[in-house]
Amino acid sequence: xxxxxxxxxxxxxxxxxxxxxxxxxxxxxxxxxxxxxxxxxxxxxxxxxxxxxxxxxxxxxxxxxxxxxxxxxxxxxxxxxxxxxxxxxxxxxxxxxxxxxxxxxxxxxxxxxxxxxxxxxxxxxxxxxxxxxxxxxxxxxxxxxxxxxxxxxxxxxxxxxxxxxxxxxxxxxxxxxxxxxxxxxxxxxxxxxxxxxxxxxxxxxxxxxxxxxxxxxxxxxxxxxxxxxxxxxxxxxxxxxxxxxxxxxxxxxxxxxxxxxxxxxxxxxxxxxxxxxxxxxxxxxxxxx
Amino acid sequence: xxxxxxxxxxxxxxxxxxxxxxxxxxxxxxxxxxxxxxxxxxxxxxxxxxxxxxxxxxxxxxxxxxxxxxxxxxxxxxxxxxxxxxxxxxxxxxxxxxxxxxxxxxxxxxxxxxxxxxxxxxxxxxxxxxxxxxxxxxxxxxxxxxxxxxxxxxxxxxxxxxxxxxxxxxxxxxxxxxxxxxxxxxxxxxxxxxxxxxxxxxxxxxxxxxxxxxxxxxxxxxxxxxxxxxxxxxxxxxxxxxxxxxxxxxxxxxxxxxxxxxxxxxxxxxxxxxxxxxxxxxxxxxxxxxxxxxxxxxxxxxxxxxxxxxx
Lengths: 289, 311
What we know:
The complex is a heterodimer of chains A (289) and B (311). Chain A is mainly alpha-helical.
């Protein structure tokens, strides 16, 4: 009887749902780490949160027509990002207001779709699945789409890296060097929309921001260099998702017996712990310096 | 900053009037009771209960069902205004209880009436609130008890038609006999029959037919309550198919989701017949014919390996 038996509850390595969850979770953690660092640096956490929430509308509409939630998340998040770009540029002062009003309208629409899902459609459990995620219920057929979208978002950041970094740190200098700051920002928002949609399929629309900005914020406390922060955020994200999946699997044997706790709870709790720990490291380093 | 013409002195009286109007509207309504044509007005929370009301009440009762759309999941149903009006007017209401149709109780207390008879299947059977499986109409004892209570209530409301209601009750009880006998025969014909299930919808029927339900109730409850079953529970369920333990896979035909699809695929891959059971009565059936059809579908699966996806 080895230690592994206690850490990994029986059947962990043979379980198909676990395999799918690990594959999807890893891809999503990488995207969230890479995109999230820029989200934090650009101060766009509220935009990320709004995109996540608006994804609810897409997920509930997709459930209504019998499509998978991922397609709905991606479609609506990309549209919402485009709308935010249009609204945000015209009048900077009104941006929070406009985002808030659009967000309210979108969530209202989501409430309507979720009502139709439960009264008209034959879909089951869409509300909880969309809002809080259900990574163990993802079909293995979804993996190619998740990995493809993840690769697309990461590629966009890699290609945009230099101009995006300059536009983030100093928009004036970027503009002086002839970088199309607005276009770069719009493309970044598109990558953010993809990352948010992917995070939503893992831990739900409401919690998606936690995975997006939590690891990135923690990593940026440990290092000021963006590339290192991306690696750190990815590592923290992967750690939180893997450990979350393992704990959720093991929780089958915890009370209430034979139900299993939600993965989303563990992932978000671990991300939060990671953020606290990074604060501790930062504090000790500053005191030592 | 504010428009001087819209001062508080002008706006507040208007708001007060609006509030008074709202109170007045809330105070009226829902006072009428009984149908105008001398018929008893009755509501069945689910269409299987409405069907029994119809069979007992016959020509002297106007009956409507709140839930009859087979695509609706009753667990997540939200009542509308028209339902509230139906219930407010009804003389007799039949509901399942056990929280399955908790919205009925909310409507009833919202339009309280002393003259309304509420027949609650849970109460009638004396089941505690902690009873885990709410699908009582699959229990052989439920509908005979509901029918007897209906005949008694109708006879009290219209004593001049007492003989008519009692004759209908006798007819109903007689027509239930083929199903009740079929359940008894099933357990002697197929001892040791075992099935895997998604939700506990037909569990009482399985129990009455002596069929073992391999799926743990914890997982059935998760699927029913829209929670994701644990990966271990999913793997256990699939092992019933791959190891040949299940004679059939019984799933809720009305509420399908990705997890049901997954099990349907696993059952098909391992040659396990499937039986789609209904949560509300399908169109074109009476309660007794529906129950007989479900039992026949189970027998076809266990005896001949034949699937019945829809009735």
